[in-house]
Amino acid sequence: MTTNATAPPCHCCPATNVPTPGGHCCGGSQPPANGGPGDCCRWIHDFDDCCCCGHSCAPPPIATHEAPAPSVNPGPLVTAAPFAPAPGAVAATGVRRPEQPAASSSSGKAWQAPQAARPTPDWVPSANDINEFTRRPTRVVGGSGGGQGLPTLHNRPEVGETTAAQMEASASSVSENFRIHNGGQDAGFTEPVNEWERLLVATKTVGLPELLDRPHGSPVFEALPTETNSMHFDPSNPLTIDSYQAPEYNRLAVGDRPDKIAEDVWRLVESLSLEEKVGQMQQIHVSQLLDRNGHLNASAVEYWISKKMVGSVVDSPGNGQGEYAWYSAATLANLTNSVQQVALAQGSRVPLLWGLDSVRGANFVKHAAMFPAGIGIAATFQPKHAYEAGRVAARDTRAAGYQWAFAPSADLNVEKRWAHNYLGFGEDPLLLSSMVRGSVGGYQGEYRGDRARVAACVKNFIGSGVPFNGKERSAKFIPDNLLYEYYLPGFEAAIAAGASSIMQSGGNVNGEAMSLSGYYLRRLLRDKLGFRGVMIADHDEILAQAREFHTAANFTDAVFLALNNTSVDMSAGDSTFSANTVELVNAGSVGEDRVTESVARIIQLKKDLGLFDAPFSERQLQETVGSAQDVNAARMAVSESLTLLKNDNGALPLKPNERVLFVGPHLNSTALLGGGWNVHRQGPTASERDDVYEGFGDSVLAGIRKLTNREPVYHPGFRLDGRPSDSAALTNLIRLARQADKIVVGLGETPYAGHMGDINELSLDANQAYVVSQLALVNRPIITVLIEGRPRLLKDVATVSSAVLNAYLPGIHGGLPIAEVLYGKVSPSGRQPFTYPRYEYQSRDTIWQGLYNEYTPQWPFGFGLGYSPLVYSNITVDSNELRPGQPVKVSVSIRNDGQLDQKESVLLYTTQGFRTGYEPELYRLRGFDKVEIGKGMATVVEFTVTAEELAYYNRDLVRVIDPSPVNITINAMTPNERVITLNLAL
């Protein structure tokens, strides 16, 4: 949780507008236990602060900063320098920064301006590039060219003219299917007092058609009843078909990617007023458009869409104060279509870009197939599963009327305490890059023409996965040469795969505020990596520079620094951003050409997604949401992710005639398999539990029932609320254990996301560990199944368990695949995508750490067992010398001596004998391949190793190669480890 010296004011109803210890207005010092909808009526920053008054909850006032006052002393001149000043550079004349309070320091000097001028941007169109245009276009919909073209600006149809058929086809009866109400203050919407408060006495009720037909700018309000509806389930269910045609994964395919800005986009951007341009750079949360009953609030729609002309809306109402817990694609489409109609008819008339955190399937769309979390996908060592998860997520997201997915994560997961480890693809740069490449391909594909794809937003650039204390958004310290070597490849892979947008990370890296950094966000991202797409600041991240991190004097200053230093294009969540930007441009502190630069990229993305031709939801996609085909794809991913870490004396697989006792809530809950980012950010609330799925998905026990046609013997074993188990219940558990042949225990975490998942240490919950210790006294084989988003320290649990199966966060379809592995229908084939620590101090240990450092984890990166014994032999190379330009082929033979078919990931590592002045890695993954070997069969796996890939970054950020001996290791630190040595020569 964010800590403040003084509790911030609560923007709740007056009855509870008194801050409590911790700065929350929840009636206590802690936020709600689950942090989900129904517990909080207002989402501010990933549940950092919650307003839980139980009544109407208003957003913070929109104008919370003081406009820069005229000053006798105009203050220092600053530039929009994107880079650190060159040695000896002198201050250049630039834009004027609003006057700031003098900084207190021992030297008595005030704030110092950057000293290097930003070069004239090459994106400014010349006079020859801009034709005559209408100052305020009447409409920006329609057009031709198969989704590729923009309408001619001089001949756009009027509002009610050419789009009626399109609206009828794509958004028919939206005002009937999604209720829209008009609300003032009592409905949970507060506009700036100085603009609209005097109008709140109006009581006229107006529906969506009247909102569209009345003159632009006329206010409409309705006095709503005071009672609040309780959260309930969306009654609509998808009419799903079993299968459909879908493109298959192609490792070599490269989809569409951002390109230069088209001429018609430039013309459109130049036709917009400053306010219309700045609106495109503002993204609001969908809850800002709702009344307290979860319905569209016409007053809010009028303000944000017609007046503020925002360019993007994010999230599902299920994460705000929505009427339903989990929204179907059809219901979401009615909402997005309704608001899109208003955007096209009023305001800037540029289509809205709707964004959704579809991070593991369309996890916020009711009954959409949900895949394992990223860490489980990585454990498959099969990029095709990352592709398939992205493809299905894109299809179901587009079905709901959203065109932008905030995924995948390209963060390298180093700090194991970090709450978002499970969203990423592990600790190794090569594995991460391969998965990111596949994932971006799945989300985007040929997105310019394929309406079943979305824009991928890769996150979070850069270094989020190594917070120094393990907490979300805390500082990161990464030497630049290591940042380039290990943390950059994931983003390089994303950009190479065509990522159309990137989200910046929060907090600071190496002491520098990422949100304000010209070095990271312009020089590194734009210039070095060549990224040409849209960059968005995470929710409230620019605002947080003044409010939380103290890297800016006030909100206006934060926006000033972000726009002038970086190439950020859009700000999420910050309601002050657009007003501050207009103010800064009008004051001459930010050039309008800087705004034009960003708006051009945003509108180009909208054009690429086909929004000017097809701005509404793709209704035909709704019939495939949750199809059997997609659910089977998710189950296959789970099956290949399950990682067997220990299996003494053949404890697994279970035999049909064995008496097995199943223990632990994790085995009897679909919600716990899902984890965070599942229905809601923090997972289903305590009141929703498994009921929210309405039978969609399987717990492990449900999977066992399906597989064995028997009712498993189950005992909950322990509580998940931190309270010790009841002594009578524990006595009953021990009695059942004595009657069993084997005991399967499910252990792990409860759902979390963001700050709600912050922890101080990795130790397993004490109640769970205690129950296992008591079961161990019964002297029966214990099989431990781990359901967790990060590796919890097992300590004695690992010792007393005969078998350990890591299921990560498999998702709501994980029950049946887990059952199939437990009972031997499928042999496990997952490999650890991270180092599983044995002790707390190992929370940052990685396979690529320096040779000198101790590496004694519980289980190493890449470890994983199967049920069939495999024999590795005949590791060979076609040359004993490795030189630049002369790759060496490495091959190894594998034979399956077991009774089951076995999928096997073969991993190749290199270790250099020495590097001049730099410590070599313990092991560096250079290649991997997953093969299937039938029982009694053999195969040969081949890799290619090059001298160039052994280059590394020195402190000058120059890649160098040192001649030395090089060990080639197959499956390091596993029973099948094989090593051969080459000589690296130059």
TrEMBL record:
- What residues does the Fibronectin type III-like domain cover? 904-974
The answer to keyword Signal applying to this record is yes
Residue span of region Disordered: 94-128
Q: Does the record bear Transcription regulation in its keywords?
A: no
Which Pfam family, giving just one, matches this sequence? Fn3-like
InterPro entries named in the record: Cellulose_Degrad_GH3, Fn3-like, GH, Glyco_hydro_3_C, Glyco_hydro_3_C_sf, Glyco_hydro_3_N, Glyco_hydro_3_N_sf, Ig-like_fold
One GO BP annotation here?
glucan catabolic process
According to its UniProt record, the EC number is 3.2.1.21
Catalysed conversion reaction: Hydrolysis of terminal, non-reducing beta-D-glucosyl residues with release of beta-D-glucose
Q: Name one GO molecular function term.
A: beta-glucosidase activity
Keywords attached to this Swiss-Prot or TrEMBL record, sorted alphabetically, are:
Glycosidase, Hydrolase, Signal
UniProt lists the family membership as follows:
Belongs to the glycosyl hydrolase 3 family.
For this entry, the protein name equals beta-glucosidase
